[in-house]
Amino acid sequence: MSDQFDLIVIGAGPAGYHAAIRAAQLGLKVACIDDFIGKDGKPALGGTCLNVGCIPSKALLDSSKQFWNLTQHFDVHGITTSDAKIDVNTMVGRKDKIVKQFTGGVAMLFKSNKITPFFGKGKLLKDRQVEITAADGNKQTLSGTNVVIATGSAPIELPFAKFDGKFIVDNAGALDFTAVPKRLGVIGAGVIGLELGSVWKRLGSEVTILEALPDFLGAADADIAKAAAREFAKQGLKIELGAKLLKAEIKGEEVHLSYAGKDGEKQLVVDKLLVAVGRRAYTDGVLGEGTGVKLDERGRVVVDEHCWSGVEGIWGVGDCVRGPMLAHKGFEEGMMVAELIAGKAGHVNMDTIPWVIYTEPEIAWVGKTEKQLKEEGVPYKIGSFPFAAIGRAVAMNEPAGLVKMIAHAETDRILGVHLVGANVSELVAECVVAMEFKGSSEDLARIVHAHPTMSEAVHEAALAVDKRAIHKAN
C-alpha cells in the first residue's frame, strides 16, 4: 500500500518548494521529493538555486566586489590600503555558510507547514504513483491526487570538454576553487559565464571568455549590451565573440584549448576552464511507462499556459518546462499551480518577467527589446538617460550605464525597459510593476521619485520618451 498525498512535488528547487509550501498553506497534504546532496554529503533542499546557483554565486560576487573596490576604487574616497590579500578559503567558507542557512531555512519551512520531505530520485508512474529511489537503492511508492514535476535543469556538457571537477568545471565547480586561478577560460558569455568570470577576474585572474555567437548578449537590448561590453572591457574582462570551441585537453596542470575564431583556428592555454554554454531540462528518468506525459525536443515537460501537462492531476513547473530558466519564474509557476489545484485562480504573466545579470555593472530588463519590436512592426518611441547625470550615482562612484525605456508610439504603454548600471536589479522592479498595471511612460514620468536616488534615472528616461528630460539635452 502506497502513502497517499493530495500533492506530491518531485523536486525541491525554487519552483518545487514554492509549490509545496503554497499548497500546504491552502490545507493540502503535501510530500516533496529531492535527490540533491550538499557539500557535507547530506541531503539539502533548495535545488540548484540555493545550493550551487543563485545564492552562492551572489555571495562570491559580493565578496569579489568588496575586494575590487578595495584595490581599485577606494583611493578616490581618500581611503588608502596596501598589500591587500584575499583568502579564498574564507570567502568560499562564507558562501557555504550562507547556503547552509538558506537550505536549512527551507527545511524549517517544510516542518512548520507540515510538508513531508523524501530524499531520493522521484519517478512518475501511471495513475499518479511516484516511485522514490533512495541513495542506498531502497524504493518506496507514494500516491498523489496531484503530482508536480519540478526537477529543474542541469548544465550542458560539451563532448569535447567533459567536466572532470578539477580542471574543467561547471558552475558548481567554479564556486569552489581553492585558489584564484592565474588564467581562467570561460566558454559562453551568458549569465553564468559573465557572473563567475567577473568573480575571479576581480580577484586577480586573467579571464578570457569565448562566445560562439557573433553578438554579445543577444537576448538583451543592443544599446544595453554595447554599454555593458564597454564596461567589461575597461575592467580587463576579455570577451571574444564568434569563437567556437573545438577541443579542450588537459595536459599536466593546464587546459589547452583549440577554437575557431574570426581569423581561423586559435589556441589558448588556461589553468581552469568553466564551461557555461547553457542548461538543459533535468528530466532524465523522471517519467515511467504509461504516464501519458510528453517531453518536447529539448527534453522539457510539455505543459499549457497554466503548467498543466494535459494528463489529469499532472503538472510541470520551473526550468523543466517552457519559458525562461529563471528562479523567480519558477517561484510564481509553483504557487500558481498550487492555487489552481486548490480551486483558486492562478496566473503568471510571461511578458513581465524581469531578467537580471549580476555583473558589475548589473544588467536588467523587462519586456521587449527595440530589435524585437522592429521585427514585429510595432510602432515605438524611446527615452534613455545615463547614470552619469544622476547625482547619487556619481556620489557613489558608480556613474556607468543607462536606462532605456520603450513605449508604444500611439498609446504610450510601456513595452520594455532596459537597464545597465549599479543596483539595476532593484530598479527594474518599478518597471515590472508599471508594465503589469499596463502603465505608460507618462505614468512613470509623473510619479515623484526621491532625490537623490538611482531611481531618478528611470524617471528621467520616462520623461525622455517625450523629449522632456530635465537633466539631459533632448
From TrEMBL:
Gene3D superfamilies associated with the record: 3.30.390.30, FAD/NAD(P)-binding domain
Record: residues binding FAD: 58, 122, 151-153, 319, 325-328
Pfam families in UniProt: Pyr_redox_2 (PF07992), Pyr_redox_dim (PF02852)
Record text on cofactor binding: Binds 1 FAD per subunit.
Keyword Magnesium assigned: no
Domain FAD/NAD(P)-binding, chain residue ranges per copy: 5-334
Example GO molecular function: flavin adenine dinucleotide binding
Residues binding NAD(+): 188-195, 211, 278
Gene Ontology annotations of biological process type: 2-oxoglutarate metabolic process
Coiled-coil boundaries: none
Stretches assigned to the Pyridine nucleotide-disulphide oxidoreductase dimerisation domain: 353-462
Stored InterPro entries: Class-I_Pyr_Nuc-Dis_Oxidored, FAD/NAD-bd_sf, FAD/NAD-binding_dom, FAD/NAD-linked_Rdtase_dimer_sf, Lipoamide_DH, Pyr_nuc-diS_OxRdtase, Pyr_nucl-diS_OxRdtase_dimer, Pyr_OxRdtase_I_AS
Reactions performed catalytically: N(6)-[(R)-dihydrolipoyl]-L-lysyl-[protein] + NAD(+) = N(6)-[(R)-lipoyl]-L-lysyl-[protein] + NADH + H(+)
Similarity field: Belongs to the class-I pyridine nucleotide-disulfide oxidoreductase family.
Protein name: Dihydrolipoyl dehydrogenase
